[in-house]
Amino acid sequence: MFDTVPGLLDAIRSRFAHVETCPFQGERVFFENAGGALTLNSVVETSARFAAIPDNQGRDNTASHALAEVIGKARADMAVFFNAPGGQFIVGESGTELLFRLIGAASLGTGPGRVLGSTLEHPASRSAAARYAPLSDKAHVLVAHDDATGTVDAAAYLPEITPDTRVATILHTSPVTGIGVDVAAIAAAIRKVAPECYIVVDGIQHAAHGRIDLAAYGIDGYVVSPYKAFSRHGYGVAWLSDRLAALPHDGLMGAPGGAPWELGTRDTGAYATFSDVVAYLDWLGGQVSDHDDRRARIVAAGAAIHAHEQRLTEAMLHGTGNLPGLAQIEGVTVIGGVENAAREGLVSFALDGRPAPELVAALNAAGVRTHTRKDDHYSGNILTPLGLETCVRVSLCHYNTEAEVARLLAAMQDIVQG
């Protein structure tokens, strides 16, 4: 997609740090984006600038007022990026921490019944639900995902949705399979049976691949980890509906306007760096569309990102030039299936007789950065039912190129023939 517009892919890559080289390893291809996407150069600059400012929000001085304006702008930018229908945005320690807080408040703030989730989910949401369900006199019920497709749908949720389903959790995209979930369809199925249920979505893996539309989902909470969406480590972002925000929650007694959800002084630089992400996507949308509206440009950017990543994953699976794809290599198992329209910029695979750590090490020696997923607390829910102890995760983003995919496939040829 992006390489059909002269100079655009180069312009995109120029906006990110360490695109082609690692400061520790040297030259390499970066296919470990699900572990943390590349960082925008503007985010690096913004982080340094705000790290030097000694002032905090909430004071009556010029610097403090300026910081408050930065935070206000960032929240407005978040509303555009997420297409948020009211509610509020908060910044926390991490995406995991925020999932615990939202799921905890929803569980403790409602009566006996069910907390409903799925076996597809990351341990962040599953662990939070497992902790707070018994504390709030609820059963924690898990819907089984489909091992073959690596996802879960509304039809699978439906038999377990009961009128006393008080809290539900949904994973937007799996960080192991790379397969997306139809959040709106699952939420609608839940609302039909349990209209007052609080629905919290883990969007951490999905965010970098564009196309977030909270207004279309009918949910109460959505959480992302910005370091996986071109920002930096050290903070998470959550959106809360007004009714979820109104539930009892941890907060400071006597604070103006009731107990705020944010605990302690937040890093203004974190907010500012999310504005950098939104500004980048706004710019990108302007390169692939002629829309005047900012939200429309962000939607266009998301569509273009998806199209480009889909093209790269097709090349990875089916080959490019004279190089066979992963699906054509004898003994390769592609998790989630080879033909899966819901895949988002990620291919996980196993090779018969070759442990994934061995493959990842060989690829790394060839200058291709990938990652091993093991049947541990992070990935066992996906790998164990498949009879796999490990797999190789190749995760790409829209700044990756077909030439980089070719380098991966060439390295795999050398490995299997060596």
TrEMBL record:
GO terms for molecular function: lyase activity. Residues 29-245, 303-408 form the Aminotransferase class V domain. Pfam families: Aminotran_5. Keywords: Lyase, Pyridoxal phosphate. It comes from the Bacteria. PANTHER family: CYSTEINE DESULFURASE. This is Cysteine desulfurase/selenocysteine lyase. It comes from Rhodovulum iodosum. The lineage of its organism: Bacteria, Pseudomonadati, Pseudomonadota, Alphaproteobacteria, Rhodobacterales.
